[in-house]
Each structure stands twice: as C-alpha cells, then as structure tokens.
Specification:
About 20% of the residues lie in helices and about 30% in strands. By secondary structure, it is an alpha+beta fold.
C-alpha cells in the first residue's frame, strides 16, 4: 500500500497529476497538453489525451498526440482492511477497581474528558468491574496509562500475546494488554489502617476517614483533624481494605453541636450530640462524638455517618484495633461523614456533564443493575454540587439550551433558574453560573441571545 493517500475527485487536477505520474518515460519528453476524455461514470475507465514534443534532429521537433486508458481498481487502507477482521486493535488498557459502586469511574471519566485523553481510542467497552480502552497503536495505550498514573493511585501490569511471526524475516506481531488497577478506597469511605502503618505515616489514629483521592489517598482523623496521605507504593506494599463504604451510611439528626475552635483548611473541629433519624419517636438514645464538620452543621440538621456501636466488621485491622490497649478506648460510637440535604425527587439542574460513548458488554445489564448505576450517577452529581474542590477538577456545562428545547417539546413554558430553584431548600448547595462552560456544539453565530 502507498505511504500516503490523496483525495482526487473525477476529472480533477489531482487525479490528472496522479495519472501522469503512473506513466514511465515522460521525463525524457516535454508534455504540451493533457486532458480527460469523457467516459461513462460506471465504466471504471479513465481516458487521458496527452500531447508530447521531442527534438528528433537538430532543428527538427516532433509532436504526437495519443490516448492512455487507465483501469480503476478498488483498494482499502490498512486501517479499513483491519476493521473487518478480528484484529481490530493492537493494544488494550483494562481499568479495574474492586468496589461495589461506579462513583470513582464517573469521576475518572470526567478527568479523561476534560484532558481529551481518550481521543486516540477506537473503542470503549464497559465491563463488570471497570472499562476497557482499545487502541490501534501501542504508544497510544502507553500514553493513556501514563495519564492514569498522573491522576489516580494505580498499579499497572503489562503483558503481550504473539499474533503472527514471519520465520524468514524474524518479524513478529504482538497484541499488548495493560492492566490498570485502582486503589479500592473511595471518597467518604471509613478506613482502618494497620497500627504499624498508622505510625509510619505521621502517627495518626488508625480509624480514619477518606476525604479525597488524588494521586494518593488522603485521610483525616475526625477526632483531631490530623491529616495524612498514603502514596500508591506504600498502599500496595501493605494494602488494606475499607471498613465501610457509602452504601452503609446512616442518617443522623444533630441534637446539639459546639465548636472547639480548632480549624484546618475547610474543616472545623466540633463536639456533637446526634441521634439516629429512625430512632426519633421510639427511644431517646443519643450519641456523643467529635466531627470535622463543625463549620456546616447546626442543631436540627441531617447528617450521614457510620454507626459503629453494635456493628460487627469482618476486618483484621479493626480486630487488632479493638485488642490494642492504646487505641481500643478511642473508637467512637458514630463517625459523621457529610451533611445530608433534602432534595426533590426530580430536580432540574442548570448544569450537566459530558459522558463518553461506551459499548456494553456481551451480557446486557439487568434492571436492578441499571437502577444501581442511575443511583450511583445521582450520588456523584450530588457530590459535585456539595464539594467545590472536586468541582474545580472537572468541566461543567450549561444545560439551559437543552432544557429549553426539552420544555418546548413538552409544551411547558420555560421558567427562570431562580424560579425553578425557589422551591428547593435554602441550604441546598447550588453551582454558580460563572463556573459553567458554554458547549461549543450548542453555540450558534446567528443566535440573538
């Protein structure tokens, strides 16, 4: 196949130049004129009339006109020919995380879209525990693996499979597979560190809360506001699992809260008295705990937390913590995680996120799996609204035009954003319009707005 491809329309200058280059011996004569002779469009024949001049003797010039017939033959570029075979990809990046929800992959998807790290991908396939990214070249997959390493705590493993080999030239063709495993620790997870590791990373209390996952896992002790980060090499050297995840959060009601006066960044240390929302009206059981949410909690607010009293954890690190003389008395009854906001069932947001086009696996997801994925996406959108630091790492777009078109189809008059949000509670976090981007696909130069 040729090294480069040229677009040449019928009877164009590009096609005429291509035909003339196919003739041999034209460098020894001078071309006076060249033109196409009309043929039937379906004949797959191209006739070219060429007029040549050459000096036969001194002072004698011969001129001759003749016709050349070309036959058009179909051919495909190697990439198109490969797309009809089983060898459509040369490298695949398998991204996996062994957690029961997809919130980490939703955040990773937004990072990939913001940095356009998926532009070389030929296909994206969704699997049970993650995503598969297929590439036509090996260096594109390696570039994507480097991007994942720079934004998330991962460990990678590479393998290759021999496809074909030419014994005469010793040339071999391989398929490459890159396995990328994300740390199974997510934001708002309750983590119990091994006691030895807790002393190594700053002598922090072993029972901590994950408040951010960047290139490392950032942990905070809600009792003292002490923070630490566990880097990727340290985690995989002495790995540990989460004690509880966001699916086990319990709603509490703040009965009383009193700030202590200690502040670290956006965290305020406070002492709170809480009661389970399900216990109100049935018993008077309350729990006293320290929390890092003193800046946003007030008496009467709802807050989500982990209820440790009476809960059995099948975790060796937590069992070692209970048996420890130094740390067994520091285990709290309740660990508060985040404030809970009352929202409408179907809230019209004035912003939206882009999504990647993914291909589903061989088995179609069940109805309960689809409901769980929709619930994970709604939880992720709420995290984006409530966490400004998380929001700053993503690209959010205005949803006004899409909403107006949707309302126009439904025959609903479009209300202003202030009117639609007036029915929400006053303390529900809202995203400022200055933080949103206009999507270029939606912009129109003739638009009067």
């Amino acid at each position: 196949p040729p090294n480069q491809w040229v677009t040449a329309a019928p009877e164009s200058r590009e096609l005429l130049a291509l035909c003339l280059r196919k003739l041999r011996g034209l460098s020894k004569v001078r071309i006076i004129d060249a033109s196409f002779i009309w043929t039937e469009p379906h004949s797959r024949r191209i006739n070219v009339k060429i007029t040549l001049q050459q000096e036969a003797f001194q002072g004698t010039i011969l001129q001759q006109t003749f016709e050349v017939e070309y036959v058009v033959a179909n051919n495909q570029c190697p990439d198109c020919a490969k797309s009809f075979t089983a060898n459509t990809w040369r490298a695949v990046v398998q991204v996996r995380q062994k957690v029961p929800h997809k919130r980490t992959f939703l955040y990773l998807e937004q990072l990939i879209l913001k940095h356009s790290a998926h532009k070389e991908t030929i296909n994206i396939k969704e699997t049970k525990d993650g995503l598969d990214f297929f590439y036509s070249q090996r260096n594109h997959a390696e570039k994507f693996v480097d991007f994942l390493t720079s934004v998330a705590p991962v460990r990678t493993k590479k393998s290759q499979e021999l496809i074909s080999m030419d014994i005469h030239t010793s040339s071999k063709s391989y398929k490459f597979t890159f396995s990328v495993e994300l740390v199974p620790i997510c934001k708002d997870d309750l983590v119990c560190l091994p006691i030895k590791l807790a002393k190594q990373v700053g002598n922090i209390a072993p029972l901590t809360l994950c408040y951010r996952v960047g290139t490392s896992v950032n942990l905070i002790d809600p009792n003292t506001l002490q923070t630490t980060d566990v880097s990727t090499p340290i985690y995989w050297r002495s790995s540990f699992s989460t004690l509880a995840d966001v699916q086990e959060l319990v709603e509490f009601i703040v009965m009383d809260i009193e700030p202590i006066g200690v502040q670290k960044g956006r965290f305020f240390l406070a002492e709170a008295t809480v009661a389970r929302a399900s216990d109100l009206g049935s018993n008077d059981t309350t729990y006293f705990t320290r929390t890092h949410l003193g800046g946003i909690l007030h008496p009467g607010d709802s807050v989500m937390g982990y209820h440790l009293t009476g809960t059995n954890f099948n975790n060796p690190q937590f069992e070692a913590l209970e048996e420890s003389n130094a740390h067994s008395s520091t285990i709290p009854d309740v660990v508060l995680v985040k404030k809970h906001y009352e929202r409408k069932k179907k809230k019209g947001r004035n912003w939206r996120l882009k999504r990647m086009n993914k291909e589903e696996g061989e088995m179609l997801p069940r109805k309960q799996d689809k409901d769980r994925m929709d619930q994970d996406y709604e939880m992720f959108l709420r995290d984006v609204e409530e966490d400004q630091e998380l929001r700053s790492t993503m690209a959010l777009y205005k949803a006004q035009q899409a909403k107006k078109a949707r309302d126009a189809m439904d025959g609903v008059e479009t209300a202003s954003i202030a009117e639609t949000e007036a029915t929400e509670a006053d303390d529900v976090p809202k995203i400022d319009m200055d933080e949103l981007l206009d999507e270029f696909d939606d912009l129109d130069m003739n638009d009067d707005q």
